[in-house]
Amino acid sequence: MNAPNLIILVLFYSRHGATRRLAELIAQGIESVPGCDARLRTVPAVSTVTEATQPDVPADGAPYVELADLEECAGIAVGSPTRFGNMASAMKYFWDGTSSQWLSGSLAGKPACVFTSTGSLHGGQESTLLSMMIPLLHHGLMVIGLPYTHPDLMTTSSGGTPYGASHWAGVDGRKPVTDEEKRIAVALGKRLAETAVKLRER
């Protein structure tokens, strides 16, 4: 009997669609690996109004993540737009609520990667990627990047780092994802899935 496909969680927060587009490209890379399925999930926005609530199901796009998604996945890609060189509060809020998974160690040993989108070319892509790695490392996830054997890292004039996939969306968020950014995101998703497969085969 064939083993069931591995579920790779692609967890993201996106306000204007750029980070969501990267998530879709990473999912494409994941699903290019036989035996792997991508599961796209998002997090609700955080409101400054204490009485404000989000609907249980988003109006469109990916469903909201549940803690069970973390338990069920064999690997995880985490993406957020930059907020002053850091992940968005909505993504940070989600990870702040994962103490039970940290206490149980249920995520330890799973591979993970990160991705981001910025309004300006030097608007904190690398610091945001590094900040997103911190809770993942506390959970014992094995964070992977993309090596310089991937040729687009040497030629891109927009997004793309060895720490994770990135996109320069522009101040208005309307810059399209470039061909290099697309290939980097797909390659990162593929590498994450391939790592998860290798870990299962150990």
Give an account of the 3D structure:
The protein is of the alpha/beta class. 37% of the residues lie in helices and 19% in strands. It has seven helices and seven strands, in the order E-H-E-H-E-E-H-H-E-H-E-H-E-H. Strands 1, 2, 3, 4, 5, 6 and 7 form a seven-stranded mixed sheet that branches. Strand 3 (75-83) and strand 4 form a beta hairpin. Helix 1 packs across helix 7 (179-200). The longest helix has 22 residues, at 179-200. The chain starts with 5 loop residues before the first strand and ends with a helix. The model has no long low-confidence stretch (mean pLDDT 93).
Q: Oligomeric form of this entry?
A: single chain
- Largest beta sheet, briefly? 7 strands, mixed
Instruction: Please give the number of β-strands.
Output: 7
In the predicted model, the low-confidence regions spanning at least 5 consecutive residues are none
Number of helices: 7
Structural class, from helix and strand content? alpha/beta
Termini separation comes to 18 Å
General shape: globular
Arithmetic mean pLDDT: 93
Name the helicity range. Answer: 25-40%
Strand residue content: 15-25%
* Rg result: 16 Å
The SSE order reads: EHEHEEHHEHEHEH
